[in-house]
Write a structure and sequence with these properties.
Mean pLDDT: 95
Structural class: alpha/beta
Radius of gyration: 15 Å
Order of helices and strands: EHEEEHEEHHEH
Distance between the termini: 19 Å
CATH superfamily: P-loop containing nucleotide triphosphate hydrolases
Shape: globular
Number of helices: 5
Low-confidence stretches: none
Number of strands: 7
Strand content: 15-25%
Helix content: 25-40%
Number of domains: 1
CATH architecture: 3-Layer(aba) Sandwich
């Protein structure tokens, strides 16, 4: 059984890819929802509820689990994961996706967009360095999912 984190900057397609994966694997969790991530009042950073994530992994250790999300403290869950996969896209594609998405307003304001551009410049390479694999999302969602399944040793027969 594999435990996978899909990570990357806002607008690269993490939620879209996870939605496709969730059609085959029910233990697919978008960490941006349902209280998996909270705002740290001291640092004013978004942080994963690492103890909750680790408990979930331990409880469902006999299942394949996919998470998607990116926070400053995500390295704390790395020892419990089998694969960290960074999804990436050119900044222009990220902007287009952010402006067209309906399920998340983050990135639509000028302030948010500046933060995303700065995060891509300042943090994306750090995330990539700690990843097992990097996948460009400049392809169809099905192709991305097939690539992910191949990299982590799962069959793509479910698609």
């Amino acid at each position: 059984m594999v435990k996978v984190l899909l990570t990357g900057m806002s607008g690269v397609g993490k939620s879209t890819v996870l939605k496709q994966i969730s059609k085959s694997y029910s233990n697919s969790i978008d960490l941006d929802y349902d209280g998996w991530i909270h705002m740290d009042n001291l640092s004013n950073d978004r942080k994963m509820d690492t103890s909750r994530i680790i408990s979930y992994i331990q409880e469902y250790n006999d299942k394949d689990i996919f998470f998607s999300g990116t926070t400053i403290n995500q390295k704390e869950i790395y020892p419990y994961l089998d694969f960290i996969i960074t999804l990436t896209a050119p900044i222009e594609i990220m902007r287009e996706r952010i402006l067209s998405r309906e399920n998340n307003s983050f990135g639509k304001s000028n302030h948010d967009w500046e933060k995303i551009k700065n995060d891509k410049r300042d943090f994306e390479q750090l995330i990539i360095k700690s990843s097992d694999f990097v996948i460009s999302t400049e392809q169809t969602v099905n192709n991305i999912v097939v690539e992910i399944y191949s990299l982590v040793g799962l069959s793509s027969n479910h698609l």
